[in-house]
Design goal:
The protein is an alpha+beta fold. A three-stranded mixed β-sheet has the order 1-2-3, with no helix packed on it.
Length: about 70
């Protein structure tokens, strides 16, 4: 199992919204290195959810439930 760090600005997608949704997918990632990391994530890996800009801290832990699929926004 691997551990990953994903970040989101709370005003765009917060930990509270994630908890309400129950699960989500990470789309709109244009940074090549970040996309490679998303592709490397495997089912069962754990993810530290980090709030950037506001708070600047890990706010929760999630689990990968499905491996990467093509980004519909690409």
């Amino acid at each position: 199992m691997n551990y990953w760090l994903v970040k989101s600005e709370p005003f765009k997608y917060s930990w509270e919204k994630f908890n309400k949704d129950g699960k989500t997918f990470w789309d709109g990632v244009r940074n090549f290195a970040a996309r490679l990391h998303l592709l490397a994530m495997k089912k069962g890996d754990l993810v530290y959810f980090y709030h950037s800009n506001e708070g600047k801290c890990i706010v929760g832990i999630a689990k990968i439930v499905k491996e990467a699929t093509p980004d519909p926004t690409a």
